[in-house]
Design goal:
single chain, seven-stranded parallel β-sheet, globular
Length: about 475
């Protein structure tokens, strides 16, 4: 038990009686509640153009949903403009002008050339310290292994975290064709055409290439036992790999896509797909043990009218599910109420570890003197039921419709101000801040200076051969 004194948007004291005698400011009573650092969602897609549509949550509506769910910072994936990273960054900064809470950016790399390499350094200097590479979405976002290797090497040079969407894009296209030609055209075809083996293969390949370059690697939306197994193996070998499950993959299984109602089934279409029985249990166990590190959402929302474009062809259903508002509550229900995690571990998985990986700790992810005053109060006794009728996203459906949670965020404090009181939001458009994230975070500490491929040149080859033109006859 302690008091937390906030002034000027910062935590200035923590401890019994931190406010001192005669304190006259606003008091928020947290009796019987957990006082935690605000959540950090490191995987969102607000206002994202994708598959011929634009995600329906913009930087105001998505962030208001986040605040109502106890998340006080998110890191959004910016997309290049026609492969131009610097232009894409500027576009996303303009989109974010309406922000109501703190945010950062990752940047996607979708092509490799000299300008890409130069832009990456420019963005690192601007406060972007992570870059995402897609091994899927052939013909749109996907990079080749050659491009991925070049990106890994550049990330290592500039101290940025490389992130990977791990599915075998060529095999996905092959699987989609086979499934569609077999007459399976509904949302169930999405899951059937992208089996877990394709996620496992791509995860293994990405990890091996990162090991070749001696670079850290962040694997986004780990959805399967197959991918998890590769991460476990790599960590046992000492590789610096971060594994990120998402709330939907912890809670649901693929049977939601078997629903005969297209509108219901299409809600759950995301990539990699939500998996079959057993996968979620394995992911939860790995999260509880610390093998998986950070719970995110991959919040990319498309209304039922947008999803309906793929009614007769699962290949063109816009991929994405909601979660930016529900993440903390779903994680609390599945991990803490189940007894798999203690509240301290919950904080690590939903806030602190993300702050550390993206090098904003202890500014974020902690309630300590000098930290940003991003604080939530979670009442473990309070029950609530999730519904599209009461959520704050612009999405007209919710994949957690009807799910009842015991434990609710009843107060959210962002930048030292109460912005959510459990019933009402108090936000101001434009009050959100871009949070620069510095390069060379802890994942780069004591990395070997010489890549494995260069060790031969540095230490000498095991056999000496005559130079060309000097061979003995």
């Amino acid at each position: 038990r302690a008091d937390v004194l906030v002034r000027g948007g910062k935590v200035v004291a923590v401890g019994p009686g931190a406010g001192g005698e005669g304190f006259s400011g606003r008091e928020v009573d947290a009796s019987g509640m957990y006082v935690m650092p605000g959540g950090i969602d490191p995987h969102t897609h607000l206002e994202m153009p994708f598959m011929g549509q634009v995600a329906c949550d913009d930087f105001r509506s998505g962030q208001e949903a986040a605040l109502a769910g106890g998340t006080t910072m998110h890191i959004d994936f910016a997309l290049p403009d026609a492969h131009d990273l610097a232009s894409g960054y500027r576009t996303y900064r303009q989109k974010a002008a309406k922000s109501v809470m703190d945010y950062g950016f990752h940047m996607a790399v979708t092509q490799w050339n000299e300008k890409t390499a130069a832009d990456m350094k420019e963005l690192v200097d601007a406060g972007v310290n992570s870059f995402k590479f897609f091994l899927a979405y052939k013909g749109a976002l996907m990079v080749t292994d050659e491009e991925f290797l070049a990106g890994l090497e550049r990330c290592k040079e500039i101290g940025a975290v490389p992130m990977v969407h791990a599915e075998n894009g060529d095999a996905v296209v092959w699987g989609q064709k086979k499934v569609f030609e077999a007459g399976i055209t509904g949302p169930e075809g999405h899951a059937l055409s992208r089996p877990a083996v394709l996620e496992g293969e791509a995860t293994a390949r990405a990890i091996r290439l990162a090991q070749l370059v001696n670079s850290p690697l962040y694997v986004v939306h780990v959805m399967s036992k197959d991918a998890l197994g590769e991460i476990v193996k790599a960590k046992q070998e000492g590789a610096r790999v971060i594994g990120e499950p998402v709330a939907s993959g912890l809670y649901w299984d693929e049977s939601k896509m078997w629903d005969p109602d297209f509108k219901v089934a299409a809600q759950y279409v995301m990539s990699p797909p939500i998996r079959g029985p057993g996968h979620a249990d394995a992911l939860k166990e790995a999260l509880a043990s610390g093998v998986l590190d950070i719970v995110a959402t991959d919040h990319a929302v498309f209304n039922s009218t947008q999803k309906a474009l793929g009614r007769h062809d699962f290949r063109i259903i816009p991929n994405g599910v909601n979660g930016i508002e529900e993440r903390l509550h779903i994680t609390w229900e599945t991990m803490v109420n189940s007894g798999m995690m203690k509240p301290q571990d919950f904080v690590r998985a939903t806030s602190t570890q993300a702050a550390k990986v993206f090098n904003v700790f202890p500014q974020k992810g902690a309630i300590v003197e000098g930290a940003d005053a991003d604080i939530i109060l979670l009442d473990p006794r309070k029950e609530h039921t999730i519904s599209a009728s009461s959520h704050h996203s612009r999405m007209d459906t919710n994949i957690y419709e009807g799910v009842t949670i015991k434990g609710r965020v009843v107060t959210t404090i962002s930048q030292g101000k109460v912005v959510w009181d459990g019933e009402q939001l108090f936000t101001e458009e434009g009050a959100g801040r871009f949070i620069p994230m510095k390069p060379f975070g802890y994942l780069f500490d004591k990395l070997a200076d010489v890549e494995p491929l260069e060790k031969g040149a540095a230490t000498g080859a095991p056999v000496k051969r005559a130079a060309p033109g000097h061979e003995e006859l």
